[in-house]
Design a protein that fits this description.
492 residues; single chain; five-stranded mixed sheet; 3 domains; Hypothetical protein af1432; alpha/beta
Length: 492
């Protein structure tokens, strides 16, 4: 009998603006099976002030939730776990470094902050994992605590949108005192109009498509209509509910069947956004999916480990789109990886892969300019919507591309971004060796770490055969003198 492959387990932890969600799952054949789920209503967005600082009390609440989740994660290999931060952690940026460091110390794995577009892609992937029937045009809608994602696609996402609409952020903005309507001011109507304004020009997202909603706000509304069960939402039902809620004076007065008490504080805001979506996109019926971003993360993780890494596809698409010289990519890649092997016999798979991707993209800026192609290429990589990549991963790639030659710009290090000088050195040396786009071997060249400095030893005959390269290598030695780990060139 053939040997049965061991079943792999994966964990996804979504650090959302309203709640944190944990999913433990495994694949049986091609089918994902959810083994364990957990949720903590943290409302991280409530703790974000106007200057994007996180309130210490909210941070403590969030860290307590992570401590509760940690025992589930500790039994898994680190590469089978992915922890993702969304809208609030995007907004907090570097000011969340302290929180992120504490979170990592609890969980034992990094927290990846992702863009809104990447969040939308993962949501689409998760929802499609539960979709029945043949591929057809669908519009996926997810209302989170800080943002709302809309995706239109069939077999793959075709259009992705991330909007600044969230049930927690809208609750802070329009229902801060819990009031829904008072005297001449109807806060529900104001929230709904604000949401409709954000949705302008997006009517095409749902046109001709099957509409599927997911996550907390959508499920909460669905439960009100279906005696606590999650089922479809019809236009006439949500029109009626929106009218009723808009007449209630205070959130505490909401008396709705199936409304979870934990959801009550943000229900009016979530309903206002959802009703605005129904109205502005002219939706008559919405199915509700049990799956969302967490399931998408698990599918993404499994792909990374078994030959389906979305990031590789993204890089390859960029190479094709910008017509990057693939012969030069091959030369630089082969040489850089050989140098890295000389320098460190063992180097992490993720590190080597990051170096490969940086090399594939190192000349992307040449498609538009020659004089400043490094700066332009770095800007393109850092700010592009790169499917599969976290913000920190893109920042690492941009740093390598920006510093492939010339003076080395010191990085602005922060949580999750500590660029490796090993990778930078190997990239720069490989670019020098093949600056004239000529094939050269490393025979007679050895790169080593002497503890206090890098040492590049080259046979004199090799240098004599490439005088222009020799001059560039001596310039490179000077560029590294200001670094904590300088480079020493030794001709023998």
């Amino acid at each position: 009998m053939p040997t049965q492959m061991p079943i792999e387990r994966f964990a996804a932890l979504d650090l959302g603006s309203n709640s944190f969600h944990l999913l433990l799952a495994e694949f049986r054949g091609q089918r994902m099976v959810r083994l364990h789920t957990d949720r903590a209503m943290v409302r991280l967005a409530e703790g974000l002030d106007a200057d994007h600082n996180l309130d210490p009390a909210v941070s403590e609440r969030a860290l307590a939730a992570l401590t509760r989740f940690q025992p589930v994660l500790q039994k898994l290999p680190a590469d089978h776990i992915r922890v993702v931060g969304t809208n609030t952690l995007r907004a907090a940026a570097a000011k969340a470094d302290g929180f992120l460091e504490e979170a990592e110390s609890i969980l034992g794995v990094p927290v990846e902050t992702i863009s809104g577009i990447e969040e939308a892609r993962l949501i689409y992937s998760g929802v499609m994992a539960a979709a029945d029937g043949p591929p057809r045009l669908r519009c996926i809608i997810d209302i989170g605590g800080g943002s709302t994602e809309l995706v239109r696609g069939s077999e793959a996402p075709q259009q992705l949108q991330s909007l600044d609409l969230g049930c927690v952020s809208f609750s802070k903005r329009y229902f801060a005192d819990g009031l829904i309507s008072e005297n001449t001011v109807n806060h529900f109507t104001r929230a709904q109009r604000a949401a409709r304004a954000e949705l302008q020009e997006l009517q095409h997202m749902a046109a001709g498509a099957e509409v599927i909603g997911c996550s907390g706000s959508v499920k909460a509304v669905a439960r009100v209509f279906n005696d606590g069960e999650v089922a479809e939402i019809l236009r006439e039902d949500i029109d009626r509910l929106a009218s009723e809620v808009s007449q209630v004076e205070h959130i505490a007065d909401l008396n709705l069947p199936g409304l979870d008490e934990e959801r009550r504080p943000v229900f009016a805001a979530g309903l206002a956004i959802l009703h605005a979506i129904f109205c502005e996109l002219d939706i008559q019926r919405m199915e509700v999916s049990p799956y969302a971003i967490r399931e998408g993360i698990v599918h993404d993780l499994a792909g990374r480990l078994h030959g389906g890494d979305r990031r590789a596809n993204t890089v390859e698409a960029a190479v094709q789109r910008w017509q990057i010289d693939q012969n030069q990519v091959r030369r630089v890649n082969d040489t850089a990886l050989k140098l890295l092997h000389q320098l460190r016999l063992e180097y992490s798979q993720e590190g080597r892969q990051r170096l490969r991707w940086a090399i594939q993209l190192h000349e992307v800026g040449l498609a538009l300019t020659h004089s400043s192609f490094r700066k332009l290429g770095a800007y393109m990589i850092k700010h592009a919507d790169m499917a599969g990549f976290s913000r920190d991963e893109q920042e690492h790639l941009a740093y390598l591309v920006r510093n492939q030659r010339g003076g080395i710009k010191p990085p602005k290090e922060h949580y999750g971004f500590h660029p490796s000088p090993d990778l930078l050195l190997c990239l720069r040396l490989a670019c020098i060796i093949h600056r004239d786009r000529t094939e050269r071997t490393l025979q007679g060249i050895n790169l080593a770490d002497q503890g206090d400095a890098y040492r590049l030893q080259i046979e004199r005959a090799w240098l004599d055969s490439s005088p222009a390269i020799e001059e560039l290598l001596y310039q490179e030695e000077q560029h590294w003198q200001s670094q904590s780990h300088p480079l020493r060139l030794l001709a023998v």
